[in-house]
Amino acid sequence: QVQLQESGPGLVKPLETLSLTCTVSGVSLTSGGFYWTWIRQHPGSGLEYIGSIFDSGSTYYNPSLKSLVDISLDTSRNQFSLRLTSVTAADTAVYYCARGGGYDSANIFRGRFFLDYWGQGTLVTVSS
Amino acid sequence: DIVMTQTPLSLSVTPGQPASMSCKSSQSLRHRDGKTYLYWYLQKPGQSPQLLVYEVSSRFSGVPDRFSGSGSGTDFTLKISRVEAEDVGVYYCMQGLQLPGTFGQGTKLEMK
Questions:
Q1: Beta carbons within 8 Å of A101's beta carbon, 6+ residues apart
Q2: Lower Cβ count inside 10 Å, N or C end of chain B?
Q3: What is the rounded distance in angstroms from the CA atom of residue A99 to the CA atom of residue A61?
Q4: CA-nearest residue of chain B to A64?
Q5: How many Cα atoms within 13 Å fall on the side-chain side of residue B17?
Q6: CB A49 to CB B49 under 8 A?
């Protein structure tokens, strides 16, 4: 059973760095052509794609956040992490990690945004 | 970025009745590989989103057959044949054709 679980501080001060970790169980981060993805949801609002890291380590970040975001893999712990620098109140949101991509039973790639497993989400508040 | 527009923003339905919601994209979501990368996700109250439909009309594993997706190009529809209480939540369409992936603003389904 694949499970993802976010962890990290719930409160971050303005202009500091937000750091979150997603611990994955039930599948190896380096197997199967998956995109390990971060998505956020501002309070009472919709969903925003932050970025992904492929099992090879290559990354893609939403251009709206690109200079501020870093996503990394820790294969020894089967975790991937999000760092968002110089945060402001506008970064207050629920942050979700999710698994995208992979291959179906016919070995056809399912698409980067085939987000089949999600963490429960963690609320991060930016405030002094 | 591709803009996704959903209508209506809210929907109130009597249990057992059908429901339908629309999603329009600012450009065609058909890829040169022949697939159309349009997804539907449901976020139930207090939960994370869950995948319902991928590539316009394919139901994800475990999704009841009362859910059906249709459409092509830029216009897409999600229909629920007979709404049940457990279907309450916000439905999001998402395009996966072009980076960054973008979501619609959501359609909130409530029970009458």
A1: A32, A33, A34, A35, A54, A109, A110, A111, A112, A114
A2: C
A3: 15
A4: B100
A5: 11
A6: no
A114 inside 8 A of chain B by CB: yes
**A2 at B interface, C-beta within 8 A:** no
Tens of each residue's pLDDT in chain A, 128 residues: 999 999 999 999 999 999 999 999 999 998 878 999 999 999 988 999 999 999 888 999 999 987 799 999 999 999 999 999 999 999 999 999 999 998 888 888 888 899 999 999 999 999 99
Q: Do A110 and B94 touch (CB under 8 A)?
A: no
Which of A22, A61, A115, A122 is most worth mutating to test chain B (most B CB atoms within 10 A of its CB)? A115
Tell me the β-bridge partners of B26: none
Q: What whole-number distance in Å separates Cα of residue A38 and Cα of residue B2?
A: 19
pLDDT digits (tens, 9 = 90+) for B6-48: 999 999 999 999 999 999 999 999 999 999 999 999 999 999 9
Q: How many helices (H) and strands (E) does chain A have?
A: 0, 11
Residue B100, preceding peptide bond in cis (omega within 30° of 0): yes
Dihedral sign for Cα B72, B95, B35, B78, please. negative
